Prior knowledge:
mainly alpha; Alpha-lytic protease prodomain-like; Alpha-Beta Plaits; 2 domains; three-stranded mixed beta sheet; 9 helices
Amino acid sequence: MASHSDQHQAHEHGQTHRQGSPRAFFWGVLLNSGLSGLQLAIGIGFGSLALIGDAIHNLGDVAGLLFGWGAERLSARPATARFTYGLGRSTQLASLMNAALILMAAGVVIVEGVQRLLDPVPVVSGPVAWAAAAGIVVNLLSARLFGGGHHHDLNRRAAVVHLLTDAAVSAAVLVSALLVGLVGWMWLDAVTAIGVGLAVAWSGWELLGEALSASLDAVPRDINLTAVETALRTLPGVENVHHLHVWGMSTSRTALTAHLSRATAGEEDGELLQLAQQRLADLGITHSTIQIEPPGGCSQDRLSPQAPPGSPSCPVPGPAPPGS
């Protein structure tokens, strides 16, 4: 006998609503737009490439926040006859675009830093230091608006990585400007810009790897696959778990499909499914489809790492005996 179950849509919509408040994105875009304009004007006017690099990265913040904001709005739309899972994948695409923006901004800053190192330009440290200090305050405040929930949402975490990285960039620019003013080392601005570019590139590379993994249906980082399998395998009356697949429907919603083999025939399939849903929800999986198989039931699934063809739990049928 086969059965399947889905987590309640109300739970998913409630989770999306809690995480999808646009306030953080709105204020983040507004604050960083103003900061970028201020830093560009001061960086160009007073000769600081490090501050210009910070401003460019802030513009990347603005674009990234807009991508993330738009993706969250799309992911909140209900499923349709064509997009039966909804548009949750748009948040994963936004994470990819965010990572690409970070890497491009880092490349621009590094190239310009090398050129400036070969041809130093005088830097007026006072206004640059004040603009960098403003960058620290604005980026930390913008990151704070997202609260602690961003750890479980790659799209929002991408936005926060943008903001915290830029706060660190602004701190580096501030220290550089103060040192230039104290000791007069004009080349220090270019060296700081190169260091900033490398740090930004590192954070962008890590984010890109995680976003690509999500796009390729990898198990989400905060899901322990072994714990998931154990939770299902230890359900009352369950003999084995196979065809187990876990992937991200969006950057904040996780889906699962699995087959449960029963040790003995039973009439409590509904209760078993409800208990399975509860255990999966405790592990962060909000959307599940489960098939219950009778004793000895099995079907092949070449994608399942838990029960490959030929394993004891899912044996390959032997040749038919002669004369059968």
